[in-house]
Specification:
569 residues; binds magnesium ion; 14 helices; 28% strand; alpha+beta; Nucleotidyltransferase, domain 5; Substrate Binding Domain Of DNAk, Chain A, domain 1; 6-stranded mixed β-sheet; 35% helix; single chain; binds adenosine-5'-diphosphate; 25 strands
Amino acid sequence: MIVGIDLGTTNSLIAVWRHGEPVLIPNAIGHVLTPSAVSLDEKGDIIVGLAARERLSTHPARTAAVFKRYMGTNRELHLGKKEFRPEELSALVLRSLKADAEALLGEPVTEAVITVPAYFNDLQRKATKAAGTLAGLEVKRLLTEPTAAALAYGIGLNADEQYLMVIDLGGGTFDVSLLHCFEGVMEVRATAGDTWLGGEDFVDVIVHDFMAHMGEAAGLPPVSLLAPIHGVLRRQAEMVKRRLSEADEAELSLAYQGKDLTWTLSRDRFEMLSESVLARIRLPIERALRDARIKPEILSQVILAGGATRMPMLRRLIGRLFRRMPLQHINPDEVVARGAAVAAGLIGRSAGLEEIIMTDVAPFTMGINVSDRQPDGSRLTGVYMPIIERNTIIPASRVKPVFNVEDNQTAISLQVYQGEALMVKDNILLGKMSVRCPPAPEGKVQIDVRFTYDTSGLLEVEATVLNTGVTERLLIEGNPGSLSREEIEARLQNLTKLKLHPRDDAENAALMARGQRLYEQRLGHARSVIGDALTGFISALEAQAPERIRTTREHLRQVLEAHDDEPFI
Ligand code: ADP
Ligand code: MG
């Protein structure tokens, strides 16, 4: 069974193809959205998802989120005393999703299609693939998120030629992709976006307005101080934002120093205050159209993805820009995962996938550094020689020759780059290799450099010295952003030692995490009621008394519902 996974910055989902349609798999607490957050508990077990997100405020030093931003870099994040690379944290999320799928399907899950943003470069894609390996998943294919969104709508599954735009506004990233589908090829013609724009910016708008109207007068510390009260305020603002997607007004209430601050925000005002954020959404859309030289009228569809596109003001803006209503009947936060399941289903049935989505295109040009002989005999070094060009239909394999530039040169150093610029220094260095050279006069040693781009957009490099017939392969290694095969093996051993918090305890863990967060946030009477309910529950758990666990859990749940006006999401 191959699963489809949307490994998101804010939320991740897992889905399978069943009875002719994509089916989303709920996690241990029954939600299909699993927050991409990881926390280390006091026993050293790993907690993933909602409980981990709750622990962001109560145990910030043991919890990590938004690590997708660091994929393909060397940055390590701390959970307590342990350090994790971003692909390891992603692997823990994947492992948790895999366990959810196995619990539902009743069989081991070992293969997956994982989605990546269209703009992800080779390093970021390799890191995503490594995360899969670290989670015990063979990644059959990396699929770009906009392609997945299109597949979820059944687009690209027939030969009709069309252009479409996918607009994806997640928690903290905004991606616009222009797709061209023709004869079974799905080509990402242009991408644009803003990696620091998302649903969170709309929460900021609400927080600032509340501060200006109520907070400052009530003596709340300034937002930049990150006082605990701002954690509470942000969560309240998040709920207001979501309610305003449905209702004309929403109430925010915040208890602070014995005062109950209640404030109402109307949708009209929220939309007025959000104008500058909305303006930032316009620009990338216009740029993508311009880059691809496409007029909005030519687009056959506009597809919305990402939870933040649920906001009516966003839908109206898109409607105005394109003079049509976008496709939105599939839940925008589920559409990428559903598309991943469509792809997984196609691969599983080998249903003509070769003709359909196996033919994606290379999103970037890949090439090597060469030196260029000038008319006066001098050499200009650091010039880029493209080998596989952007928009080549993949899988693809291309060869280009390079020659020794000095008599009796003993080695030729090849540097592999990704990018479009003339000089290699302006492109992204992916790796280096040194190829041994037999003694010969300048220009008499020929090395054929072969680049192979597989269907996931991953690159392999081979260099063959024609004079000797020796072939060397480049392991993209020594690059700070990616792990070698051996390193992955070693890290796999370490990760396997870490235990995921038991699935059947997930609900208790989430309830405890929420209870602890509320206990830390509230004061006075509310705090002591929450504290009593929590200690009752903890002591029942310690006594391992099933009946008491059941009743104290129910009591705790009721207390939390009464003191936390957020739905448990
Ligand atoms: P990502 O792709 O970053 O993992 P998602 O697609 O899950 O993220 O989107 C998460 C964002 O969607 C959050 O900022 C959340 O507040 C926002 N969101 C979810 N539901 C709604 C809603 N009903 N109204 C407004 N925003 C929403
Ligand atoms: Mg997403």
